[in-house]
What does this fold into?
Amino acid sequence: CRYAVRRELAPGRPIAAQQVVQHWIAESRAEIDAARLLVLDAAARIDSVGASAARIEISTIKFFVANVLQRVLDRAIQVHGGLGVTDDVVLAFWWRHERAARIYDGADEVHKDVVARHVLRQYGFDARRRE
It folds into this structure.
């Protein structure tokens, strides 16, 4: 946000005045808040029943929070323009790190499978059963 407020498209017209940038800021704020609440909920569940019993919550945050981070970083890079993909700012480093983390901590699809199987089991469906 600091960059959007300081960087001007024209004298006296910061990037932050652009409606699309304001929407990106609002979307990022909402997604960060939602991700934070999911993490806090998972942490509380881990504290109360242990990590093994909180597998679903852990899998949920592993794919959801990673995707939120990717979207927030993509928007920030877009606001920064070409500067956002250089080593002059930390955004490109964070984006590379985030993308790699989504692979080496288990692919998103694996975590989504864990969550989906759990939800479907509550409705009497065994997603592992092949027909």
